[in-house]
Amino acid sequence: MAALADHEPDIHKPWKILPTEKKIEPGVEVPIRIEDVRDKIIKDLQDNIRVEQQYEKERKEFEAEEAKNRQKQLEQTHAILSQNWTAYIKNMLKLEEEENWIRYMTCDGLPNPGLLSDMNTFLFLWSLEDELATMDTIEEKCRVIIHLLNKLDKIIRFSTLITKEYVTECETIAAQLRLKLQRWIDLACYHMLRNIETNMIRENTKTTRYVRTTNKAICCVWAPITLPIGMKRQVMERDRPSLFPGVPEKCIEIEFKEIKLRIKMPSDMDCHCMAIRGLWLAYDHYSIGSNSYWMSKLPEIVDLWNPTLGLFEYSIKEYDEKIRIGEEQAEGRRLRLEEKKAILEKLEYPSVPRIDKRKRARKPKKSSPKDHQTEFESMLTSILPSKLSELLPYLPTPNEIILEKEEKAMSESKKLLFTRCEKTEVNLRKYRILGGIFRVDILYQPPQPKDLGKDTYLTTLELPKEPKFMSFYKPYETPQSDPDSERTPEIIEAEMKALEEAMDALVLLTLKLPDSIFWFEPPVIAHWLPEKRIWSTKDIHDIKYNEEKQTIAFRTGRLGIHGLAGYKYANLPFQSWELKPEKKKSGCVHIGVILTITAAMVQAEFLIREDQVCLKSFTGITSTPLEKILGEYFELEYLIELLTAVTTGWM
């Protein structure tokens, strides 16, 4: 049987009759040579038919024996794996019950993330507290909401006894929490801007500034003070000609040192009765809503290629499929064998050509080699079909059919897994937003209180009582020159001036890259488009990266949410990995194993003891962001969360 598997004859390939050339020995006539060729063809065809009949019989016996042995071995392996999996599930259920009990008994005033009714009640009660949103409550709200989001994410990813409907409800609640948190921050800024003179700090007689720093958010606000100017003076100022015509007015330039951001507004914006807000958030609650963030789901293209099947079930199903295909092909193989036997019979017993009686009396001519060759070819023509299409086509084996199905399913799966993005869209399967996100917004100042004297103030309320954002969008188009015109110095200078004017109409942002991120290459500047729910580079222009100072400057035609996208797989492919036992130390009860991973740019060493893992060392680049977790033991899932938080700058 082993020899049958190692030396499988090519009996299923298309069989052709090709007269082979032989060396003609001196003195041997041509007819003898043609007879030798015919005899060789007959012998090869007889051997082929005999081997095919024998192989078909032995193949079925061999495959049945092989399937029996494979299923016996896999059944033992399946039993061991099932036993281990059952123990793992029991342990997970026990840990989940303990965690649910701890959540239930925790008296921290927060809802139980595992109970949808509690979370919905929490959202409803929170919606009634919009008037309580202040800058002093931002830190606590960020802490609470991010804590609940982490709990919900853990339930969605690691819980075992949950349904798809429950997961959908949890994802909906998580999305509402993210929206409510951003709305709370916006309302806090609105309530702060309701009284600029009291809540903000004066820089000078014309501008004020406010800064609130927390672990998860830094909010910086700059606002000009609206001075009481009479209507007559406003008209005179508007109609007064410029003292220096042709000289552009001074642009508003602001620096928020707390978030390491410098903003330069276009010269045509004076921000009268407005405020500029720079907001840095340690978390990215936008990428999760993009389609390119998630891997595409695969339908069941072919039952045989089903990832839910175990190796044991897959082997049984594959063997049953082979038997089914073999039974369907039995008639086809019988017809092909009969076809070969018919050709063999015609070769062994060729039909004798009819001799004309009138030609018997003639003296036979001496035959030449060319005549014998023509006679042999005519014999083959009479035996074989006139057209190749009349022969039965090649019938693939069951193994070849199953392999072709799997390759086709894999090819279709790759097409479905391919993430299709717009031309300027940032593919979140390839990139990731690092270092949090930063927002630059222009808000209209709400009506300020009027001092009427005797501790009496009058404030005009505009409904709804929420912040109003200025819509800023300036598309940039490169000035086009006439290709037929002559490129004189004056034309070139005019084009350069038009280019500068087009660039000056955009907002210039200069950002210092976060020190907590490993920047292997310059980041991609992206802007969040809420209407499409994608990160885009469409309105980002004139990017300048300074590697020494670790700063990046760019011009944008949109204000709003911006992020720094880094290439996810900068460390791939891994160069090598090594797993070895830990050296025994005095006083050490449990000895673990050391896993060393060498990537393209860094090397990480993990120490595993029982059910906990620690990051032992990290070389290849500065490990300053990892100092808090180096040498500390954590559960695997929690360590993954910490490492993710470090790489994205959320710690």
Automatic annotation (TrEMBL):
Originating organism: Apis mellifera
Region described as Disordered: spans on this chain: 357-377
Domain of life: Eukaryota
Comp. bias intervals (Basic residues): 357-367
An MF annotation (GO) of this entry: microtubule binding
Keywords: Coiled coil
Name of this protein: Axonemal 84 kDa protein isoform X7
Domain CASC1 C-terminal, first and last residues per copy: 534-603
Chain ranges of the IC97/Casc1 N-terminal domain: 48-225
Any single GO CC term annotated in Swiss-Prot or TrEMBL for this entry: axoneme
Family affiliation: Belongs to the DNAI7 family.
A Pfam family the protein falls into: Casc1_N
Ranges in coiled-coil conformation: 45-84
